[in-house]
Records
---
Amino acid sequence: MTCLVRDSSTVKIEDKIVTVKGWVQDIKNLGGISFITLRDRHGTVQITLPKKKVEKETFKSLVTLTRESTVIITGEIQKSDQTALGLEIIPTDVKICSRADTPLPMGVVDKVNVEIDTRLNNRFIDARRPDVKSIFELKSIMIKSIVDVMTENGFVQVNTPKIVGSGAEGGSTLFKIDYFGRSAYLAQSPQLYKQMLMSTGLDRVFEISPAFRAEKSNTSRHVTEFISFDGELAWIDSQKDVMNILETVIDQVLRKVNERGKEQLDILGKKIRLQPVPYPVLTYKECVKIVNDSGIDLKDGDDIGTREEKIIGDYMASKRKDLYFITEYPSASKPFYIMNKDGTSYSCSFDLDFKGQEISSGGQREHRFDRLIARMKELELNPNDFVFYTSAFRYGMPPHGGWGIGIDRLLTKMLDLPNVREGILFPRDVSRLSP
Ligand code: AMO
């Protein structure tokens, strides 16, 4: 008789004899009969051990196992009314791959609430939980969907260096490293490189890669290493062109995740609320008013911080809008590479917020060499530190713009997770460097 290797979700009564591989989730010893719940990536299957029917050695080795040990079990399938799958496996052969130590640092199926720190310290066990595993399967589905949507829209996927000689997003969040005796940094974003690529004729590029910020703030949305999804496109008329493509991309990605990730969303008990495009646009000034109307004092020019973002998010939620752009930020609050709106003090930039949190920022870039240098000087940056970048603006640079999205924030907002760390397998923050 042939013996099939099956995952738990595909064991069928007709298989007669199967081999299953997994973790011992639970063992119940009732004297004459014992039950093992064996878990693999797809679910669980019941191994039933009637003492009289199972070979003595097999019985003994299985009932003395510890929870979360890994085993390979071959056995006969029998019908059962007592199990979810309507069947059980009576083992004929067992191979113990590794016996788990006791006590476990945390339970897998126990209902007790475990602190996020304990969970992150023991991520290898935490991610055995079907809900946690589903989050990371959805992240994979989301990234695959982004690649599909961007490629379908004519973007070329690129990779740019993560060890760099100068930062793009301000000195305060740069991680300095020793590069064979020279100063170097971990890239805060692919900003300067994706812009340089606009002068090559690869006029639509995207990148999904780690970005690093020496972010001292210990909040539920800041980490020191995150995955950035960057897009950049040339020949734009204004930042509006970038916003149009960005909302199309987000919309298509959310739809794809809803379809492709149905199984995982069901496990989490979630459904992604889809919002038709175009997304609403608020100006910075309108946001200041919304915040002031809520009783919080915010002056024109002040930063829209976490508290203010939340107020604006609540206001938009009351209009059933989860995703919305914020435009016309004061130039002073934006980096040197963003274009100023001629004759105003505003920048050609935008943020995209999702349920009261910034998930993306972008805009039209300053592509005119002289103005770019002037803007750097205005912000007290030394253009000589950026010659590798500014050179690309001297020999034919098209007008261009783009965005950067924190993938981890997009995921956590999409799933209403309370902390960005929930969406990162091994997060890095001001106090966490391990595991
Ligand atoms: P910005 O600095 O706004 O813009 O970053 C873009 C997006 O990256 C995410 N992000 C973070 N996520 C988690 N932890 C952090 N510490 C963190 N910092 C940033 C956010 C944010 O919206 N070069 C520009 C983008 C562009 O103009 O193309 C940039 O990096 O989701």
---
Amino acid sequence: MIRILVLHGPNLNMLGVREQDLYGRQTLNDINGLLDSWAKEAGVHLEAKQSNHEGDLVTWIQEARGQFDAIVINPAAYTHTSIALRDAVLSAEVPTVEVHLSNIHQREEFRQHSFLAGVALGQISGFGPTSYMLGVHAALDHVQSKQSASK
Ligand code: DQA
């Protein structure tokens, strides 16, 4: 069974309460519920975790090596600051999709740069919770094409 790890960065535990105009009314539990339903239907093993701490995210990415086929991550504010997350993705060698609820390219200049984008398979930004759904689809598609190419 294909295994996908979904990681949510800092302040995403506040979804549904925080800046609703930007991030909508859905809570993190709502989003994880959507992901779980999708995973059941797609026959994928999916685990989702959130942390407000950069080191937790680094550790979870490292631990994904050999354990998960793909990572879908919303690094939240660490997108724009964290070389450590970028290095973790490089060392884990697990294909990683970067997702954002808001369109970071339409926001403040400091949000328009992502340290992760250069090492991610790709970035999906601006579709609200659908960004996560597109992210897991893209991750699954990538893993399946790699598997069929190696058969
Ligand atoms: C975010 C965008 C980031 O700039 C911000 O710090 C977040 C959420 C998004 O999903 O749109 O916390 O990653």
